[in-house]
Amino acid sequence: MSLRCVQCGSKFPLYPLKIKCNKCGGTVEYDSDLSRNSKIKFSGQMRFWRYRSLLPPVKHVLSLGEGGTPLHKAERLAKSVGLKELYLKDETRNPTNSYRDRAAALLTSNAIDLHHNTLICASNGNMGASMAAYSAKAGLTCHVIVPKLVDVGKLAQMLAYDAVIEEFGEILDDSIRKAEAIAKETGWYQATAELNPLAVEAQKTISYEIYEQFGVPNLLIVSMGSGGTIYSLWKGFKELKQLGIAKSLPKMVGVQPEGCASITKVLTEHLTKVEKTRNPSTRALAILVAEPLQGELAIKALRESNGLALTVSDAEIFAAELQIAKLEGIFAEPASSATIAALKKLVEEGKIGKNDSAVCLITGSGLKATDVLQALTKKQKTAVLGLELSTKEKILRALNEKDTYGYDLWKMLGKTMTRAAIYQHLSELSEKGLIVGYEKERKKFFKITQRGKKVLYAIDELKLLL
Ligand SMILES: [Zn+2]
């Protein structure tokens, strides 16, 4: 096994670890001569280290029980998307609830082999949480450089696992540069997924498992941030084919948020290389990347597999997140919910056949990013229903409890607006037939109508949907 440049093919020794070719600047990956390995047999329980014979060699084996995650048959979701066969590779079941535990197991083992006591990792969440946990288990010191925009649940994990956390930059791109500089200066083990080729090796085992659990799906759908994950899964299937184990290959589908889609744009706009996104934005923070360091690898996976790349909006991502939870009982993080949003789009646009089988990679748990979910649902509610409606909604809710009159409503609403404004709302609600007025105790009382009740019910439904 050696390190090989994916662009010019130059070969390098296994150590020191490197990610960039010093001849052409291309990305470097592990290259195992699989033809010599053709009698390979996987043995032992279905866990990450079952595939040790296909991983770069390590002496120490650190494990928290990663890998061997379920391939969940998503029948209800498949029906709602309009697809015959859909599976979710549920990586939320890993020790720290994300697929990065596979990379952490291999990288930490390698760091121990190389006699490192301190590791450094730039991460906007999952990788930092994983490295922090595995370092804790091994008694190593883990430094994590996080950007300002980081999911709160993941930060909480890093804190609990006692990592040394430093905030640097707005987004992951900035933090990676910082981690690169620190490692150079200190000689600490570089555990940033984008800067260590072992991460791809570890993550390719996801495809080995999918193959053992199902076979080769027609489509393998993965969200793209830095681009390394989709390449890892592609590499896994390619190796199985080279080994003569798998007879075919899946078509890779890469998904990005509309607000930072530099990899997707290379394919849809026929660019020659990945260009940096100016002002990147998405609330799916795990895939918020301006300049994907492994973009070329993702493009390679998409092109070689004759695959597809597309974007989805944040609203579509969060709607998908709730749908996966509601229909399948799996609470996925926003970044991985994008795969379902994408699948839906592809079926609607007729770009994939209804009889195709698809596997979506669920990278991590929604519990890691609940803050984002809350923020988004709140924001959408006001944007969709409007502040005007929210006062009317409050009036309807009050009248749904009991009949009352204008002055009382004004008090109930906290006297935050003029009484004239309340009467104006009451008059508009009456015109729409949602409430009716009547005389009682020499006051004008209002009561909600059946139609008003239906509107309230519809508002509640809408809120659940958002
Ligand atoms: Zn090269």
Features:
six-stranded mixed beta sheet, Arc Repressor Mutant, subunit A, binds zinc ion, alpha/beta, 16 helices, 466 residues, single chain
Structure description:
By secondary structure, the protein is an alpha/beta fold. Among the domains are: 197 residues, 3-Layer(aba) Sandwich (Rossmann fold); 81 residues, Winged helix-like DNA-binding domain superfamily/Winged helix DNA-binding domain (Arc Repressor Mutant, subunit A), CATH 1.10.10. 44% of the residues lie in helices and 16% in strands. It contains 16 helices and 16 strands. It has a 6-stranded mixed sheet, sandwiched between helices. A hairpin with a 2-residue loop joins strand 15 and strand 16. Helix 2 packs across helix 3, helix 8 crosses helix 10 and helix 13 packs antiparallel against helix 16. The chain is elongated and about 95 Å long. Zinc ion binds next to loops.
